[in-house]
Amino acid sequence: MTRLSPRPFALAIAAALVLPLVGCAKDKNKSDTSYVAHDVDTLYNAARERLNRGQYKVAAALFDEVERQHPYSVWARRAQLMSAFCYYLGRDYQKSIDSAQRFLSIHPGNKDAPYALYLIAVDYYEQIQDVNRDQKITQQALDAMGELIRRYPDTNYAADARVKVDLIQDHLAGKEMEVGRFYQRRADWLAAVLRFRVVVDKYQTTSHVPEALERLTESYLALGVPEEAKKSAAVLGANYPGSKWYERAYTLIRKKMPEAKAS
């Protein structure tokens, strides 16, 4: 599985928001006696200790226990986010998503709601796989990032989400290119055209557009529609005149249609 970017930014921004919450608890007892009734300070500090020791899944379970045993305390709300954060650190992304979504459902107007939504988006984002795998998670990451940007456009989380959206779109465009090239190898030119057109029309700002335009030129020529091939080559020449893909498209047009000009 390949991730589109490293974790440090998400870790830093998460720590900056959430970790100071634990400093409010009294440092009484660091035993982790889950499933036994304990006062909130004991449970919360046990969870904090496990987090500090890098035992993220145990810490998450203890934060869950804080919420279960003391659901109406101020610590319950904090524990929900801490649980989501710990599951994220432990790469248990679905449980992290579940915890963050539970926080949002109970506290939709809380000041930490943007962070909870950001954490959900990052959970999806870090599960993105390479382009030869199913891209359902990739689309979920894009949807979550988009919701964050729409709802909290002026936050640092939205700023980071905008960067990740560009990377996600490039990844999705790469998937379309992979499938389009597969159809080309099979000489299924119409199916190839449909995939390359998605890249050109839907992912216009990605790095895959020049290649998509060149391959559209190839495919249209193979289908016997030279005028469409000329249009693709002309767009390529107008926007990417110095690229290797334009050189290839121009060569193809001149070879197949000696009387034509590609730009």
Characterize the structure shown.
The chain has 263 residues and is mainly alpha-helical. It has a domain at 1-127: Tetratricopeptide repeat domain (Serine Threonine Protein Phosphatase 5, Tetratricopeptide repeat), CATH 1.25.40. It is built from 12 helices and no strands. Helix 10 (209-223) runs antiparallel to helix 11 (226-239). The radius of gyration is 25 Å and the shape is elongated. The two termini are 41 Å apart. The relative contact order is 0.07.
List keywords for this structure.
about 260 residues, mainly alpha, Serine Threonine Protein Phosphatase 5, Tetratricopeptide repeat, elongated
Précis, in short:
The protein is 70% helix and 0% strand. It is elongated and about 85 Å long. Helix 6 (113-125) runs parallel beside helix 8 (156-185), helix 7 runs antiparallel to helix 8 (156-185) and helix 9 runs antiparallel to helix 10.
CATH topology of the domain at 1-127: Serine Threonine Protein Phosphatase 5, Tetratricopeptide repeat
Helix content: 55-70%
**E-strand count:** 0
Query: What is the CATH first-level class name of the domain at 1-127?
Result: Mainly Alpha
Q: What is the H/E string? A: HHHHHHHHHHHH
Distance between the termini: 41 Å
The radius of gyration is 25 Å
Produce the secondary structure layout.
Elements (H helix, E strand, L loop, with lengths): L7 H11 L21 H13 L3 H14 L4 H16 L3 H14 L6 H13 L10 H16 L4 H30 L3 H14 L6 H15 L2 H14 L4 H13 L7
